[in-house]
TrEMBL record:
Domain Beta-lactamase-related: 5-382
Source organism, top-level taxon: Eukaryota
Protein name in UniProt: Beta-lactamase-related domain-containing protein
Repeat in keyword set: no
UniProt record similarity statement: Belongs to the class-A beta-lactamase family.
InterPro entries cross-referenced by the UniProt entry: Beta-lactam-related, Beta-lactam/transpept-like, Diverse_Enzym_Activities
Organism: Pseudogymnoascus verrucosus
């Protein structure tokens, strides 16, 4: 059977993938895997220092920033954030529409939104491009949501349920980013540079490509599978080869800093963040107790049911990021928690999440292994990317075990 490297090279040579960077390491420094396959742009080979649109991988960094604010006593996880995010005072819940007039039906939320809600997607905030109710709501409004629309206007929407009563992927981390900026009196860029990137020696992550020319120079060219597919389309089912595209996900230069998805950076630098959290006791980012809280299941049964249904819908078609439907899941502060051992070798207690162009990170504290699959394909959910990411995940545990990493040591929960 072809090796891991051979299978990725074959996939790239065949046009099934463009370019991909695969990274993994253990917290003790015994094991490191760093490989790049395929192309960065037409005719140009990719290398491990390539930079990517990190998209929702940004959420982990914003969570770290927010938890640092908690550690300093600037806010508590269960505080009402509307005292700082005053735009959320009196927020309404969208319950449906009057079918005769198409007017939205709205009611004032009774529960207050907390920082914990923002970090765990239990606030009731959603993404208008992903939720049909919100899509319909915004279709009734004047078309003012453009690239130049202010950040707060673009992330402001009614809720989909009472805060704390369910789970819906949405703009909570964008609001958490605004919260960090207001608490600290600085931009997310400046804050993360001082409190996350500099402590780990990270030079090639930013919200503003114009500030770091090397990030711009090394940025991969976007690709898509399916010529007619839009950024927010469902993944192609036709098995087309990938093709280079001029689709732009971020403005450059960029005036806004979205805590939920605005960063650009190198996979190698992002892995430093994963490894630091994995090595909880020696992390320079957060106290061990804070990291333990991040990896503690946060969802009540109602939220866990909603999350499980979300994953099951993806798992049915083997969509990128999905876990098999029997997997026990919850959500931590920063990402999805996998609460049962996975067939790939990933252990119960692992935290993971993804980014729009089919990137995915994992932190498995039970085995001490962190990994990052940095892909570059639109739309999100790409089936071939899922197949190859799962292959990478399986092989990583075998490679780590071969150098003496105890990958079967179990959950840290």
């Amino acid at each position: 059977m072809p090796s891991l490297d051979q299978q990725f090279q074959q996939a790239c040579d065949a046009g099934d993938l463009p370019g991909v960077v695969l990274l993994a390491s253990d917290k003790a420094g015994k094991f490191k895997y760093e490989k790049a396959f395929g192309l960065k742009s037409p005719g140009e080979k990719i290398d491990i220092n390539a930079t990517f649109i990190l998209a929702s991988c940004t959420k982990l960094m914003t969570t770290i920033a927010a938890m640092q604010c908690v550690e300093r006593g600037e806010i508590r996880l269960d505080d009402d954030v509307s005292t700082i995010l005053t735009e959320l005072k009196g927020i309404q819940i969208l319950t449906g529409f009057n079918e005769e007039t198409n007017e939205p039906l709205l009611t004032i939320a009774k529960n207050k939104i907390t920082l914990r809600h923002l970090l765990t997607h239990t606030s009731g905030l959603g993404y208008f491009g992903m939720n049909p109710l919100l899509s319909r709501f915004f279709s009734t409004l004047p078309p003012t949501r453009t690239a130049n629309t202010p950040l707060l206007h673009r992330i402001t929407s009614p809720l989909l349920f009472e805060p704390g009563t369910s789970w819906e992927y949405g703009t909570g981390l964008d609001w958490a980013g605004v919260l960090v900026m207001r608490l600290t009196g600085t931009s997310l860029e400046a804050y993360m540079q001082s409190h996350i990137w500099d402590p780990l020696g990270i030079k090639n992550i930013t919200f503003h490509q114009e500030l770091k020319p090397e990030v711009r120079q090394r940025l991969v060219t976007m690709t898509k599978r399916g010529a007619k597919k839009k950024v927010w389309s469902k993944p192609s089912t036709s098995g087309e080869k990938v093709e280079w595209t001029n689709d732009i996900l971020y403005e450059d230069p960029c005036a806004h800093e979205y805590g939920g998805g605005g960063a650009i950076g190198s996979a190698t630098d992002f892995l430093k963040i994963l490894t630091s959290l994995c090595a909880s006791s020696t992390s320079v980012l957060l106290k061990p107790a804070t990291i333990d809280e991040m990896f503690t299941p946060q969802l009540a049964p109602s939220g866990q049911r909603a999350l499980t249904l979300y994953n099951a819908a993806l798992a049915e078609t083997k969509t990128f990021t999905s876990r098999k439907s029997s997997t026990k899941l919850n959500f931590g502060l920063g990402g999805l928690l996998v609460l049962s051992d996975d067939e790939t070798g990933l252990k119960a207690g692992t935290m993971t999440w993804s980014g729009l162009p089919n990137l995915l990170w994992t932190i498995d504290r039970g085995s001490g292994v962190s990994a990052f699959y940095a892909g570059n394909v639109l739309p999100f959910g790409d089936f071939k990317s899922h197949e190859m990411q799962q292959l990478f995940e399986r092989e990583v545990y075998g490679l780590a075990a071969a150098v003496g990493v105890a990958v079967g040591s179990g959950s840290k929960l």
